[in-house]
Design brief:
The protein has 14 helices and 20 strands. By secondary structure, it is an alpha+beta fold. It folds into two domains: about 5-185 and about 415-510, FAD/NAD(P)-binding domain (3-Layer(bba) Sandwich), CATH 3.50.50.60; about 230-365, no CATH class. The strands form seven sheets. Strands 1, 2, 3, 4, 5, 6 and 20 form a seven-stranded mixed β-sheet that branches. Strands 10-13-12 form a three-stranded antiparallel β-sheet, with no helix packed on it. Strands 7-15 form a two-stranded antiparallel sheet. It is globular.
Length: about 525
């Protein structure tokens, strides 16, 4: 069957509710999932890419305006194509010397709608990829320890579809597909003793002096790093969508802890100023320091929520999200949306906020030209950590820091990670907390070095027919470094090639020829070794 005819037949089968066996089904239109789809499609495979939201791109198109990478030489391949596409957009539209082009930082910074446009264009070039948006996983069909099919539900119509495939890829942030398939996973933080990781478990860590503080027990804990939404805000008055009322569920008491932070000096600037980390000197020693603000093109800002103040209200609000049903997850999403918009409303309008601070906050507003079908608010909740696969290898802090030596070399390395260990707080302010919130590991760049990522972390212990490039097999501490979209794009590219080789060689993903996998990745510009 020719590719165009097969593509039409696949679409007909899907939308008529019939099952049609195909090469690869990818659940999760995150950057990792997109990269996997493109890499496999270029090798001739037929791909169906499913996404829960009505937009693809995960966090990269949903407010995360910066590509989190500190050593650009360590990540290449399809991620570099994305970066080049962003740069091309700004050069074509504005010219090479325009301020907007300079603010895109060689393509590593982008407005959300530009990132989405680039991803959509990359997918559109591949005729073998069918994209299905707005579909939720309902169940997985497994026999003889092999994932053979999934049933998905259209979130708007309620229609159910069954999809069979030779290989599946779970590219979700949550690890939903492999959980449904019965693969073993971790949820929560390991104890310090389980893998001998210095920063594991319950921890209070001084991010400025790099010292462990009283209260650090190293015990295992169920609380995960806080979720938030990542905002895109504009400083262009003509593009500003002003909030005219507080969000539903607003309670100013959620933010009163920031007044104590201001008084105690915890909203001051950092001791060491590093570019690209959301430091805006105008905001130092003001309540607006509750936000981390970085410039991106077109008078816009990438806005994170600063996790260092003790008034940071988001920890523990994600409890129950990962294993919750759809109603539970939606309730938690709405709670986080309310908290984020409530913080913005509080900073801009609360009469107790000093007038000068309110004026600073009112320089930034939701942009009219972003997220136009969602009241200018991002679609994707920032799920910083969900399930973590139990795979054939577990990446730990020792792989990243080398336990006092150089990072390890892996014979099955398929990508390189390089971002500092960085975990948001896991608990709200507890009695006695005076410096940091429990669980916060803030940009441990003094111990994190480029490290090789083995293919085995993407392979479940027992379930065949499934590859996991995003919610992969790591400890919490290691996940706090690997959890970056550029790294996930590299792992996604490796997963796509691996899926192709699995089909070509008629073997399980755990049995594919590793040397061929690595050779193909290197040919595609992937970095698989650190120096």
């Amino acid at each position: 069957m020719t590719t165009p005819l097969r593509h039409l037949c696949l679409l007909f089968a899907i939308f008529c509710g019939h099952s049609l066996a195909q090469d690869i089904v990818i659940y999760g239109g995150t950057p990792g999932g997109i990269s996997a789809a493109i890499s496999a499609a270029r090798m001739g495979r037929e791909i169906t890419l499913l996404e829960y939201n009505d937009h693809i791109g995960g966090m990269t198109t949903s407010g995360l305006g910066k590509s989190d990478i500190e050593n650009r030489a360590m990540i290449g391949g399809i991620f570099k194509e994305f970066v080049a596409g962003v740069l091309e957009h700004y050069v074509t539209k504005y010219g090479a010397e325009h301020e907007n082009t300079k603010l895109c930082q060689d393509g590593y910074y982008a407005e959300p709608h530009v990132a989405e446009k680039v991803f959509e264009a990359m997918l559109a070039k591949e005729a073998n990829i069918t994209v299905m948006k707005g579909w939720r996983l309902q169940s997985a069909q497994v026999s003889n320890n092999k994932l053979r099919g999934i049933t998905v539900v259209n979130r708007e119509s309620g229609d159910e579809k069954r999809l069979d495939a030779k290989v599946f890829i779970d590219a979700t942030y949550e690890g939903d597909l492999y959980a449904a398939a019965g693969a073993k996973f971790r949820l929560g933080r390991e104890s310090k003793t389980e893998f001998g990781e210095e920063h594991a478990g319950v921890v209070y860590f001084d991010y400025q002096t790099h010292e462990f503080l009283p209260g650090s027990t190293g015990a295992a804990a169920t609380d995960l790093p806080a979720y938030t939404y990542r905002l895109c805000l504009t400083k262009d008055p003509q593009n500003a969508a002003h909030m005219t009322e507080p969000p539903a569920g607003y309670d100013r008491k959620d933010y009163l802890g920031y007044f104590d932070d201001l008084k105690a000096g915890r909203l001051a600037g950092p001791k060491v100023f590093k570019p690209g980390r959301g430091y805006n000197p105008k905001h130092f020693d003001t309540l607006v320091r509750a936000l981390s603000v970085a410039d991106i093109p077109n008078n816009k800002h990438d806005v994170n929520i600063n996790p260092r103040p003790l008034g940071f209200p988001f920890p523990e609000e994600n409890r129950g999200y990962i294993e919750g049903d759809e109603a539970t997850r939606e309730r938690i999403r709405q709670r986080h949306r309310s908290l984020v918009l409530g913080l913005l409303w509080f900073l801009q309008n609360d009469p107790e906020v000093p007038e000068a601070h309110r004026a600073l906050a009112n320089e930034m507003h939701l942009p009219k030209d972003e997220f136009t079908d969602n009241a200018h608010f991002p679609w994707q909740l920032y799920v910083r950590e969900g399930r973590r696969l139990v795979g054939e290898y577990t990446l730990t802090q020792h792989d990243i820091t080398g336990k006092g030596q150089g990072p390890k070399h892996h014979t099955d390395s398929v990508a390189v990670g390089e971002f500092p260990i960085d975990s948001f707080p896991c608990r709200k302010r507890q009695p006695g907390d005076t410096l940091v919130l429990e669980g916060y590991l803030g940009m441990l760049d003094y111990i994190t070095r480029p490290y090789e990522i083995p293919y085995r972390i993407m392979i479940p212990e027992k379930i065949d027919g499934l590859i996991v490039p995003v919610a992969a097999s790591t400890t919490h501490v290691a996940f706090s470094s690997i959890r970056m979209e550029p790294t996930w794009m590299a792992l996604g590219q490796a997963a796509g090639v691996a899926a192709h080789l699995t089909i070509q060689n008629e073997v399980a993903p755990r049995k594919l020829p590793l040397q061929e996998l690595q050779s193909r990745l290197v040919e595609q510009g992937q970095v698989i070794r650190h120096k």
